[in-house]
Amino acid sequence: MLSKGSIPIQAASTPTVPVSKTFACAAFTVVFILLSLVPATQAQFARPGELPRIDAATRAAIVDSVTAAIDSIYVLEGPAKRIVAGLKKNLADGDYDDLTDPAELAERLYRDAQAINHDGHFRIAAMPPLDPAVAEAQQDEDPADVERRRQLRRARNYGFKKVEILPGGIGYLRFDEFAHGDEAFAAAAAAMNFLANSNALILDLRYNGGGSASMIRFICGYLFEENAHLINWDIRAKKKTVQSYSADYVPGRRITEQPVYILTSDRTFSAAEEFTFDLRNLERATVVGDTTGGGGHTVASRIFDFDGFRVGMRLPYGRAYNPKNNEGWEGVGVIPHIAVPAEQALITAQADALRKLIETEEDEQIIAGYQWGLTDLESRLNPIELTKQQMKQYVGNYGPRRIFIEDGALYYQREDRPRYKMEPMGEDLFRVGDLDYFRLTFERNKSGKVVKIIGLYDNGRTDEHERDKG
Fold it and tell me: pLDDT tens, 385-397?
């Protein structure tokens, strides 16, 4: 019983923005196709006992199909040849003779291949046969399903989750996927143009698992003055190299003079890693956070049909690398310039941006504004806890102002206005609730007793009151 054929590597539609230049071949569209993204009716793995038994001829046909795909497609030629030789030797030595269940054979082939060359993207699995009715339905997709997916993507704003201007004029953009299509590009353009006046730019990719390379090129178009060579892709099966460039044209203003920060986590993966890798290598961004996931290969699906079952493969087939040194991020991730836990990445990047703005600014009033924000951030990175005895030093009335302890925390209230929880920022310096424009500091006498309260405002104004006697 022989394989009836396979589903070839599929090609994505050509992006509508400038994409890449190639050499040694005609233009080629890099695609990311994961077996896990095939509809559930196609990609549900079978468990042992669910599929018809196989004989020696079918075992040989499965091994032939699997090894042929590895030999012709797998991204690295050396490991591909070792895997092929190892699996064929195991078959010839009779190591698979007792395996009459397709699911068990597929799992064994997968484990044997991994023992020869470990690859987190590689997979072999047996699957039930595709229902002919399902296959026919997939040829003519229900327009309602297409529209539903479009509405869901639009409701997620194509991954663009949050955009704002942080203290100090620092622009912040969180986006959780690299979407493709005209509406996605429009959302990206709106976000980037909103941030065009920023003093620095923070791009948050901590929750971004990847997506389309076309969005990488589009956003990079805003960050470089001219067309920039971002990365190369080697496609072994095609014997070609793809050169990827930033977009020649983007709508609106470019952001080319401001420093850029990229926030990463171990969940930052695939296209999000390429974006980070590109800007890091081109010295256009400072990377802050955790080392990324390490997915630097493009992945294709290959499915072989047999009588009563199918065998599916997930095959890495393209390798991304820096054209200057031939290095990529597969298996190692993109290493940050400033390594901190992902949850501290935003504050760390903000603080670093403000320090650099202070270094280059000459206007004292502007520097004071930057310093106000920096003091807040540094206190959050290095939190202070006060004992109850230390809190008691501040308790008392200061004219119209009152400091008191409630539920183990210090509180501030002025006359009959709302009361605010106080958080220590430094020696005798406190944050007051969510009032980002106002802080409190205290003055002590020579014996160290607190005798005065001083209100500090972000515009430089102060007001103070002596502590009531008695």
Answer: 999 999 999 999 9
Give the CATH H-level superfamily of domain 141-306+325-357.
Answer: 2-enoyl-CoA Hydratase; Chain A, domain 1 (3.90.226.10)
Give 388-466's CATH code, choosing from 2.40.128.50, 2.60.40.10, 3.20.20.140, 3.40.1580.10: 2.40.128.50
Residue 134 confidence class, pLDDT cut points 50, 70, 90:
low
Same CATH topology for 141-306+325-357 and 388-466? no
pLDDT of residue 23: 31
Structure confidence at residue 44 (pLDDT) = 81
Interior CA angle at 164 toward 292 and 285, to 5°? 40
Structure tokens at 337: 């310039």
Task: Specify whether the CB–CB gap between 452 and 398 falls below 8 A.
Answer: yes
d(CA 66, CA 102): 13
Q: Can you give the residue ranges of every domain in the chain?
A: 10-136, 141-306+325-357, 388-466
pLDDT surpassing 90 at residue 32: no
* In contact, 102 and 126? CB cutoff 8 Å: yes
pTM, whole model, 2 decimals?
0.83
Q: Is 326 left (phi over 0), alpha (psi -120 to 50) or beta?
A: left
**3-class SS of residue 374:** helix
Q: 257-273 burial, b for 16+ CB within 10 Å, e for fewer?
A: ebbbbbbbbebbbbbbb
Closest C-alpha to 3, from 89, 66, 71:
66
